[in-house]
Write a structure and sequence with these properties.
Helix content: 25-40%
Strand order of the largest sheet: 6-5-7
Radius of gyration: 14 Å
Keywords: Signal
Shape: globular
Structural class: alpha+beta
Number of strands: 7
Strand content: 25-35%
Length: 102
């Protein structure tokens, strides 16, 4: 029961433990974009993290990106059904799912 409760809390109030850096890195690119798709591509995730992109189902025009541990992103992707969730480790993934070009 406790695991289910914690899982529900994670879905309702996701804790993004990821860290971001604006210095050159070999980590996953994770742009910060405004509603007009003007993106700042200087943000990258720390090693072991991925760029978690969340958008409401049917409305990917409104999305947010976060750096998150890969395992957390994959878990969220598998259980959240009310939103689109993508775990992207490179620019090609972000292009394919969100239409973002650097």
């Amino acid at each position: 029961m406790r695991k289910i409760c914690c899982l529900i809390l994670f879905v309702i109030f996701p804790v993004i433990r990821g860290t971001t850096t604006s210095a050159p890195s070999t980590g996953a690119p994770c742009p910060s974009c405004d509603i007009s798709y003007h993106c700042d591509w200087s943000r990258t995730c720390a090693p072991g993290e991925t760029c978690l992109a969340r958008g409401f189902t049917g409305n990917l025009y409104h999305f947010r990106t976060y750096c998150a541990p890969k395992e957390d992103c994959l878990l969220m992707q598998s259980i959240v059904k009310t939103e689109e969730v993508y775990c992207c480790g490179d620019r090609e993934c972000l292009r394919n799912h969100l239409g973002l070009w650097s």
